[in-house]
């Protein structure tokens, strides 16, 4: 549910909410499961064909690194891709009788006050219609883009910019400020906490596999996979035995090519328990990079020389995961616990992220 940052208490959490789709004529059969433009995966169980272009454009119009897979996962969570969806506030009258009042509307589930602030006339017909996907999806992208920009101003908050933006979209930015991060599970019966986790975990499903990584930098380095950043380095949490996240996650659907970030020699390749299928590479500067949760047995072996951009496997969800992604670490040694922050390391090698 899209909630303005200025709303004092998120309505979705201060009252009972009942979700109801006022129409059951949603069409999600618009394709055979092939990708649209090499970006979104279109078809039954993925993104309805009639919305793929709108979602991709909304993401492309954002200069903050917004993935169309995130927007698609949001829409699935919000309305199941149903432009006629409505959620209701349940109220009780003085006689104890309950009744419903429409609250959030449309494919992106905007409440009226948020739509008044964030709504756009995406199709140029002179009307900002919350139930028109050609208006609502661009508005969703605009709101998420603004939240991402705001989130990047608070690197000390608990959560990646994407996680903070999703929490702001669902609950209102004032709650992100209040908790200095994603609101904890105890907030609003866990609705925002799980909203964020579920969308990030499912976003890769809606992205069609692409060629991994990008162009090589002048130093011979590249991003290890084509995907948006998910859980950041050093995020605190009980999910990790060290008490924090020891790498960065790239959201990438199963089957996306994973490439060596830079030149080096494969230190190890194979099964690694909680990390699933993984590869560890020793680079020329003595540092190590780790690529975890690969879908299949790695395509390289220990002792093999690799160059930056060389494919070493494909992304997946092996080991302890909640969804497909690439877990990437930079280490001072090959063993767990020698991690450093990957982003500054990659930036020093000419990569833009």
From TrEMBL:
The keyword Signal applies. GO terms for molecular function: metalloendopeptidase activity. The keyword Signal applies. Residues 60-175 form the Transglycosylase SLT domain. Residues 1-20 form the signal peptide. Residues 244-332 form the M23ase beta-sheet core domain. Pfam families: Peptidase_M23, SLT. Transmembrane segments: none annotated. It comes from the Bacteria. Keywords: Signal. This is Peptidoglycan DD-metalloendopeptidase family protein.
């Amino acid at each position: 549910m899209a909630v303005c940052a200025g709303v004092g208490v998120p309505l979705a959490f201060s009252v009972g909410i009942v979700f109801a789709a006022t129409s059951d004529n949603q069409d999600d059969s618009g394709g055979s499961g092939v990708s649209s433009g090499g970006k979104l995966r279109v078809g039954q169980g993925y993104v309805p064909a009639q919305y793929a272009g709108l979602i991709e454009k909304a993401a492309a119009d954002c200069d903050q690194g917004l993935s169309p897979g995130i927007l698609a996962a949001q829409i699935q969570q919000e309305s199941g891709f149903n432009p006629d969806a409505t959620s209701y506030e349940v109220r009780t009258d003085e006689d104890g009788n309950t009744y419903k009042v429409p609250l959030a509307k449309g494919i992106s589930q905007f409440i009226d006050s948020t739509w008044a602030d964030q709504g756009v006339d995406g199709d140029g017909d002179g009307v900002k219609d919350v139930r028109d996907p050609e208006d609502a999806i661009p508005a969703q992208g605009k709101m998420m883009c603004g939240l991402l920009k705001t989130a990047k101003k608070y690197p000390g908050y608990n959560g990646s910019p994407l996680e903070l933006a999703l929490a702001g979209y669902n609950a209102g930015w004032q709650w992100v400020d209040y908790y200095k991060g994603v609101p904890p599970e105890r907030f609003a019966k866990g609705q925002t906490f799980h909203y964020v986790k579920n969308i990030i975990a499912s976003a890769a499903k809606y992205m069609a596999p692409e060629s991994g990584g990008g162009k090589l930098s002048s130093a011979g380095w590249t991003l290890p996979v084509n995907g948006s950043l998910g859980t950041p380095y050093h995020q605190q949490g009980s999910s990790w035995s060290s008490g924090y996240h020891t790498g960065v996650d790239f959201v990438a659907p199963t089957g996306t090519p994973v490439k060596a970030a830079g030149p080096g020699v494969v230190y190890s390749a194979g099964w690694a328990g909680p990390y699933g299928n993984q590869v560890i590479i020793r680079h020329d500067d003595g540092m190590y990079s780790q690529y975890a949760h690969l879908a299949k047995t790695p395509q390289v072996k220990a002792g093999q020389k690799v160059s930056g951009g060389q494919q070493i496997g494909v992304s997946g969800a092996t080991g302890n995961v909640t969804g497909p992604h690439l877990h990437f670490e930079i280490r001072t040694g090959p063993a767990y616990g020698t991690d450093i922050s990957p982003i500054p390391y990659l930036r020093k090698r000419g990569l833009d992220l």
